[in-house]
From TrEMBL:
GO terms for cellular component: extracellular region. It is found in: Secreted. Residues 1-25 form the signal peptide. This is Zeta-carotene desaturase. Keywords: Hydrolase, Lipid degradation, Lipid metabolism, Secreted, Signal. The lineage of its organism: Eukaryota, Viridiplantae, Streptophyta, Embryophyta, Tracheophyta.
Length: 362
């Protein structure tokens, strides 16, 4: 009996040591990221897909000046959030992380991934939101033994931050893709309903897997990205493709209602909405930025492997801190830092709802 008590005490002490070690200076014990190329940090590298960023000039401003699989010149939004949360290092990709290292969290994001399983299929393999959730289940199965039992794992996971930034590819590489997909026949309202129904199931599943503090990014103004401006006509003197932004706005409005519903119905749930439109249009933009709709890198053209992405080993602008976009789809590090800063600590009341990430993790 005494030996059993000592063993249980030793296991509890070990668990507490692991947790205290992991959470030193961090605002949360772990950080899990779900999303697409805005957050991908290497998960697509081993996949057979056109959606890859494992070649120069991607990563030109990342430590070591190496391409890691991030679709930008340096850090992405997830990396910047990890810094604000006081993690000593970026959250590692699921594809390359095993053992105790996963206790600090994992990045499951995948370039071309969408809420719908078939979004992005035109580019090849990708880890859609449902596959990312399956990978998270596999992670949880490893966490329980590391912390001693499932109860300890549940308590631990309840304290973590979860960020979900996905949905752009459901529009870019599904609803508005060329040639048209079957979804293109739906009205914008009907397509948004389909997305929300699927996303609701996924966010409920994430809650069932132990998440309680969840920040969900809305879809940004993708009608203003260089590639969509190149592909679709602009009307009424607008600088952006208004029809695309209107359709995305319908989805975002329904997403806000979904977030409110989850917070009402799920015990102890703390979901919050990150308003990318408010962040993009409300208040001052990133200091020093002057180029708002041109890519910094030389991009691939129609007929190339991945039109709109950086040309492998192509030229790149020197004044990267003056550009919003690195390629025709993805923001520069300075833009990512700006977005993450407003998501973490709202500048305007409309940036987040009901709270920003800083308040969410307190």
């Amino acid at each position: 009996m005494a030996a059993t008590t000592i063993t249980k005490w030793m296991i509890l002490s070990l668990n507490m040591f692991i947790i205290l070690t992991l959470t030193h200076a961090q605002q949360v014990p772990c950080f899990f990221i779900f999303g697409d190329s805005q957050s991908d940090n290497g998960n697509n590298n081993p996949l057979i897909t056109k959606a890859k960023a494992d070649y120069p000039p991607y990563g030109v401003d990342f430590p070591g000046a190496i391409p890691t699989g991030r679709f930008t010149n340096g850090k992405n939004i997830a990396d910047c959030l990890a810094e604000f949360l006081e993690f000593p290092h970026p959250i590692p990709p699921f594809a390359a992380t095993k053992g105790p290292a996963l206790l600090k969290g994992l990045n499951y994001a995948s370039g071309a991934a969408g809420i719908l399983d078939n979004s992005g299929i035109n580019l090849g393999d990708r880890l859609c939101m449902n596959r990312q959730l399956e990978n998270h289940k596999a992670t949880i199965a490893q966490i329980a033994p590391l912390l001693g039992n499932q109860t300890s794992a549940d308590v631990y996971l309840n304290q973590c931050l979860y960020v979900v930034n996905i949905g752009s590819n459901d529009y870019i590489n599904n609803y508005y893709q060329q040639p048209p997909s079957p979804s293109s026949s739906l009205t914008p309202d009907a397509f948004a309903d389909e997305l929300i129904a699927t996303f609701s199931t996924q966010l409920n599943s994430l809650y069932e897997l132990g998440s309680r503090k969840v920040a969900v990014f809305g879809v940004g103004l993708i009608g203003c990205i260089p590639q969509e401006i190149l592909l679709y006509p602009i009307t009424n003197g607008s600088p952006c493709v208004d029809d695309i932004n209107i359709a995305v706005g319908i989805f975002n409005g329904k997403l806000v209602s979904l977030i409110n519903d989850l917070n009402t119905k799920l015990p102890n749930a703390q979901f919050t909405y990150i308003n990318m439109t408010s962040i993009a249009l409300g208040g001052p933009g990133p200091a020093g930025v002057t180029e708002v709709n041109a890519p910094c890198c030389e991009v691939q053209k129609a007929g190339d492997s991945a039109p709109g992405q950086c040309l492998p080993n192509g030229s790149v602008c020197e004044n990267r801190d003056e550009y919003i976009f690195f390629d025709n789809f993805h923001p520069t590090e300075i833009s990512n830092t700006f977005t993450a800063s407003r998501a973490y600590r709202a500048f305007l009341l409309t940036d987040t709802s009901p709270v920003d990430i800083d308040h969410l993790v307190r």
